[in-house]
Amino acid sequence: MINVFQPSLGDEEAAAVAEVFASGWLGHGPRTKAFEAGFAEHVGARPEQVVFINSCTAGLFLATELLGLGPGDDVVMPSVSFVAAANAVAATGARPVFCDVDPRTLNPTAAHVESALTPRTKAVLVLHYGGHPGDIAAIAALCRRRGIALVEDAACAVASTAHGTACGTFGDIGVWSFDAMKVLVTGDGGALYVRDPELARRARRMAYHGLEQASGFSAARVSHRWWELDVREFGRRVIGNDVTAAIGSVQLRRLPGFVARRREIAGAYDRLLADAEGVRLPPPLPAGHTGSYYFYWVQLDPAVRDGVAADLLERGVYTTFRYPPLHRVPAYGAGHGELPGTDEASEATLLLPLHQGLDDTEVRTVADELRKAVESRSSGGRR
Fold it and tell me: Among candidates 176, 158, 81, 177, which has minimal Cα distance to 124?
């Protein structure tokens, strides 16, 4: 089966993990701090602004706590987003307010966000779809003008930038994912960026039980009773560890190569499918934007999209659609209004396999099988 997502792990990662085992220190320690510093440099932040955590989802939940969201607050977010983002908002008692997206980029514009703002809007939470930065600079400017917090779900955008600024750092808080299906993987894991220095210090405390000192061993150098607790507020344990951080540091070094290969594959799809009847290709990145090439999506006639996906699966090519519209999920309430761009995109879009492990033969196979499936379905073939 040619998979949509697949990590690239090898001898370097295994050796890094072996070094952690040999050290006897598996928890939150020196390799975690090194990975935080390396990732901070990668996104143009200071090390104290970045916390390595156990998942992007944990970062989203932590972000809602840091912003003090609760009943009576609205949070504007695109309906095309991962369920974890809406869950993080709804769990506080705040209301997710879903905005529309451009049907081609699947990202919201500043106008989409602005049209969904309410008098109770306390935050905006945007996703960078497929690693495309989208209208993030304009959305950030809008939030600053309105005095509204901006949270970036940069799970798909580990290497994406807009005019030299890393996605995840335009707003007040940003989160990235390093789970097993992402570009840079640590198994489970993520990173949290916080712009404000004091809020960043609080985030680090909240990520480890609310403790001022994350380790009694480190406290022993500054306190004669280092075992005593200094709890400032009620946090939880969502920090990363040295095992996953060691993997992350190797993956971070390999990241430019991963992205370069993904860019080659996306370019190959562009060429191989340029004249494919009934297949619309993703829009190119605007000038000044770089992407992570996390998704490669095509758009088909909604009447054949699902059938094409089923045919490809039978032929050994796994495809999917992400992310199903959240405004259709009953748990988040009703009354979100009409979102025509979201509805159009969700019925037509299909993600093709895109990961750095694909070889050229597999890429050609995906393109050829897609052509055949679309032609068969469009010409009244089997249903």
Answer: 81
Listed in sequence order, the residues at least 6 apart from 35 whose beta carbon sits closer than 8 Å to its beta carbon are: 52, 240, 245, 246, 248, 249, 252
- Which helix or strand (DSSP H or E) is residue 105 part of? none
Q: Is 152 helix (H, G, I), strand (E, B) or coil?
A: strand
CA angle at 154 for the pair 322 and 51, rounded to the nearest 5°: 135
Instruction: Single out the residue in 227, 251, 275 at which a domain terminates.
Output: 251
227-284 pLDDT, tens digit each: 777 788 899 999 999 999 999 999 999 999 999 999 999 999 999 999 999 999 999 9
Which residue is associated with the tokens 């095992």?
243
* Global pTM value: 0.95
* Distance (Å, whole) CA 85 – CA 66: 15
Task: Indicate which CATH number applies to the domain containing 230.
Answer: 3.40.640.10
Low-confidence residues of the chain, pLDDT below 50? 382-383
